[in-house]
Amino acid sequence: MRLALLIPLLLLPLFGVLWFHPFGFAPEAWRLFLIFMGTIVLVVSQTLSILAASILALSLALLSGTMDPQAAYSGFDEGFILLIVVAFLISRAVVKSGLGKRIALQIIKRFGGSTLGLGYSMVAADLLIAPAFPSNTARSGVLYPILHALCHDSGSKVTDGSRKKMGAYLMMTSMSGLAISSALWLSAMAANPVGAAIAAQQGVQITFASWLLYALLPVGCSFALMPYLLHRIFPPQITQTPQAPLRAQEELRHMGPISRNERITLAVFVTMVALWALSEGLGIDKTAVAFGGLGVLMATRIFTLEDLRHEGEALGTFIWFAILYGISAELNRLGFIGEIGEGISALFSGLPWFWVYLLLVSAYVLIHYLFVSQTAHLLALFGVFLHVGLQAGVPGELLAMMLLFATNFSAVITPQGSSSNLLFAGSGYLEAGEIYRFGGIVTALYTGLFLTVGTAWIWVLM
Amino acid sequence: MRLALLIPLLLLPLFGVLWFHPFGFAPEAWRLFLIFMGTIVLVVSQTLSILAASILALSLALLSGTMDPQAAYSGFDEGFILLIVVAFLISRAVVKSGLGKRIALQIIKRFGGSTLGLGYSMVAADLLIAPAFPSNTARSGVLYPILHALCHDSGSKVTDGSRKKMGAYLMMTSMSGLAISSALWLSAMAANPVGAAIAAQQGVQITFASWLLYALLPVGCSFALMPYLLHRIFPPQITQTPQAPLRAQEELRHMGPISRNERITLAVFVTMVALWALSEGLGIDKTAVAFGGLGVLMATRIFTLEDLRHEGEALGTFIWFAILYGISAELNRLGFIGEIGEGISALFSGLPWFWVYLLLVSAYVLIHYLFVSQTAHLLALFGVFLHVGLQAGVPGELLAMMLLFATNFSAVITPQGSSSNLLFAGSGYLEAGEIYRFGGIVTALYTGLFLTVGTAWIWVLM
Questions:
Q1: Which end of chain A is more exposed for a tag (fewer CB within 10 A), N or C?
Q2: DSSP 8-state secondary structure symbol assigned to residue B418
Q3: Nearest CA to CA, how far is B152 from chain A (Å)?
Q4: What is the DSSP string of A104-172?
């Protein structure tokens, strides 16, 4: 029997017993919580994919009468979830048009003369293209091929034992960079807007602009220190890479002048980003802007029905996202998260809010060891942790932002901590043990910087 | 300039003028109607895909303030639309598991000894597997490969000029069969449940069971006559096919005993159909049943994430469906369809309701010449025609059922009348002119049978 089956089989009787013992909670809320936690267990134990687990959870919640259909399907017409789905499709157009690659190459051409410079340039490229890539996984798919070609052509290969010449360092740096590029923009990671919506449910408003402002300094410091730190503790054997800017230039020449498709995609993007930035003032719907962008990309045949055919993953993401969001929203509506939060916050009673803040954020980061997906982590714990902090008097905006940042910067704590790690972890340039070690150190660096510099910065701006 | 661009460019100024002249209608309702009709024009003129057109329509409706986001996205959390999406995915599992093919082969093995018998057996197979295939396009994908192999191995080929030996007849018959198999079951065509939902908006309740009951006799008569009629007017050169049952038997032997995946898929299906049939009595949600079935198929690895990756089309269908449904629902909510309907019904004032009924159904069938998709036809006209008939005193259930049947049986009136025609029309066995001619005759047969036998039957049962 597969090991993955053991955990759920052992837990099934426990699930059955708990189902009928709600410990004083309202039975429906308690059972929905059990279904939700059961889903997380199935996913974390790798028994089922998050999609299969969510679908079964929804079905169980509905057929057992724990949830009514209207609440269960309510996630599917949430504008911000539709925004993610549309943005998924748009990101394919960016890849297909070559625009993402061109921007990255431009940066490498300018700043890639040494391995350290190359590390910085990869992360900088990532930081700059990030707002246009609401899926950090999709973004990793743009950066990785360029990075892989660079390593390979610089004579650092997996097959001949030269992986540490520069490849291992660059892979580790770029993977760690994704964790902070995702933290910089509200639109740089699929679950960020979900987190913002959950925060709004608890009365904390987060906008595209406020997110960026709060993130600027701590992400800036992390960006300044991370490639350098890795260069010291995980040094590449080659430190000078005069060929990288040339290679980028060559690739750019090979790409030729900016194509019709790139130009249209660029225009669509600039318009979309401008409209998103102005959407609050103009009173226009962000999702409608995204739909409009996608519509133009389809009408101009940059994104075709043939391209769409291969985007089943976007549908899968849409489905499990909407399902888990619906369950989470219902748990919140039933007051369950509030009750749990009050229970935990009783543990902290008497502690000054600043200690509660530090304990919550640190615990939130460490607990990411248990999670395979940033989104699952956020869905399971962000709402509860935020609620506990609010009860203890922690300023809402400070705590919400820090937990959302932590959702991103803790991504490299394990190889499976984010789907955006997978290309790097599977490249052969990095061993799992190295990722655990250096990913842990990088996460410690990020946590330290965000809790000190980040806290002070947000405090001043609030 | 492409011809397809001419129509919208010519219509654009007209659109602009009409936008500001609502002819006494409420401006928002009028503009939403213009957006909706503009979408249909773009699709019918083949300027844009229905997905691209719908996305642009949604964006325009939102950014112009014609619709608010909540109404615009309301289609996305409609249970019956989610049911279609899930059923799309489930139908892939039926194809992948081989279950659909096995059922079809069993029927051919028994009844396929002559070309006429083969024609009947293909249509019978189609009728029987139809309730499990909510996409008639997917169903055509199951039937066509079997049919194509049969024609080919019977010595009727496209390449050597022997297409009329039996291939042309069988292709025409099978394609015409899809039009009535889709009419037999509520779950046999993607837009059928949409139609039922629109009917419900106007107070006409249609269930899985009532649909089947009303369809039984007219579909039965159509099934009895259509293959025979085509055999007379479009005769195959070979009429005896002793090899067909053998071939089916051989293929069945080749398939071996029923596999684990087929067995599970079959069990899931029987359970799903049983629960669907009992859902009203048990008070359970049909979509939850479908989600449960998909969850089991995923947990048993019959439908995998890799399979999902290629199901982007399901996402596309979900999006344009939900968008157009949302617009249609909003038009209805604003009272616009009612006003239009009253205008048209004024033309019929004084006519007895039976004449109104005949005129509406006949017009509905003929107008399918203008439509590329059954769904677009239904979305554009079903609600209005039903409303007009109700105003004129036509019994609601009779008219609703007949228009829904007509949405299906008019599918073969042109080669592009339904996406389920495309495989047959593109097979090389049929010329477009033949499809127009014999498709027109078959549609006339269906219309006659449904209006006489069908009307009497529904009248008796109502």
A1: N
A2: -
A3: 29
A4: HHHHHHHH-SBHHHHHHHHHHHHHHHGGG-S-HHHHHHHHHHHHHHHHHHTT--TTTT-TTTTHHHHHH
- Which among B405, B395, B417 has a CA at the least distance from the CA of B186? B405
Cβ <8 Å between A59 and B312 = no
Query: Which chain B residues touch A295 with a CB distance below 8 Å?
Result: 52, 55-56, 59
Q: A72 at the B interface (CB within 8 A)?
A: yes
Q: What is the DSSP string of A238-277?
A: --B-THHHHHHHHHHHHH-SPPHHHHHHHHHHHHHHHHHH
**Distance, first Cα to last Cα, chain B:** 54
Residue of chain A with shortest Cα separation from B298: A52
Token pair recorded at residue B138: 């997917």
- Determine, for residues A310 and B305 on separate chains, whether the beta-carbon distance falls below 8 Å: no
The CA-CA-CA angle for residues B404, B74, A93, to 5°, reads 100
User: Whole-prediction pTM value?
Assistant: 0.77
Distance CA B158, CA B165 (A): 10
Under the banding of pLDDT at 50, 70 and 90, the label for residue A260 is very high
Q: Can you read off the two tokens belonging to residue B89?
A: 């995915």
pLDDT digits (tens, 9 = 90+) for A67-119: 999 999 999 998 878 887 887 788 778 778 888 778 768 877 887 788 999 89
CA distance from start to end of chain A: 54
What ipTM was reported for this prediction?
0.76
Distance CA A208, CA A223 (A): 20
**Residues A67 and A61 sit within 8 Å (Cβ to Cβ):** yes
Using the Cα atoms of residue A17, residue A22, residue A28 and residue A32 in order, give the sign of their dihedral. Answer: negative
Residue A62 to residue B284, Cβ atoms within 8 A: yes
The CA-atom distances, in angstroms, between A131 and each of A322, A336, B362 are 22, 34, 54
Q: What is the DSSP string of A389-424?
A: HHHTT--HHHHHHHHHHHHHHTGGGSTTS-GGGHHH
Question: Across the interface, do B315 and A310 touch by the CB < 8 Å criterion?
Answer: no
Contacts of A381 (CB under 8 A, 6+ apart): A364, A367
What does the alpha-carbon distance between residue B353 and residue B392 come to, in Å, rounded to a whole number?
6
Q: Do B312 and A316 touch (CB under 8 A)?
A: no
DSSP B36-84: HHHHHHHHHTTSS-HHHHHHHHHHHHHHTTSS-HHHHTGGGG-HHHHHH
Closest of B96, B110, B141, B107 to residue B262, by C-alpha: B96
Give the C-alpha distances (Å, rounded to integers) separating A410 from A48, A368, A415, B132: 23, 7, 11, 45
Which residues are CB-contacts of B186 (< 8 A; sequence separation ≥ 6)? B192, B193, B196, B206, B207, B208, B211, B212
| Rounded Cα–Cα distance for residues A294 and B37 (Å) | 21
Helix, strand and coil percent figures for chain B, each rounded to 5: 75, 0, 20
* List of residues 6+ apart from A89 with CB closer than 8 A: A294, A303, A308, A311, A314
Interface check for A178 against chain B (CB to CB < 8 A): the answer is no
A337 contacts A383 by C-beta, under 8 angstroms = yes
Stretches where chain B sits below pLDDT 50 are 1
Measured CA to CA in angstroms, residue B50 lies from A57, B368, B396, B410, B436 at distances of 33, 16, 30, 20, 23
Find the closest chain B residue to A290 by CA distance. B59
In terms of residues, how long is chain B?
Answer: 462
> Is residue A123 over pLDDT 90?
yes
Question: Best mutation site among A76, A80, A286, A325 for testing chain B: the one with the most B CBs within 10 Å?
Answer: A76
Q: Is B55 on the interface with A (CB under 8 A)?
A: yes
Distance from C-alpha of B377 to C-alpha of B366, rounded to nearest angstrom:
11
On whether the CB atoms of residues B190 and B84 are closer than 8 A, the answer is yes
> Mapping DSSP to helix (H, G, I), strand (E, B) and coil, where does residue B240 land?
strand
A36: Cα separation from own chain's centroid: 20
Phi/psi for A186 (5° steps) reads -60, -30
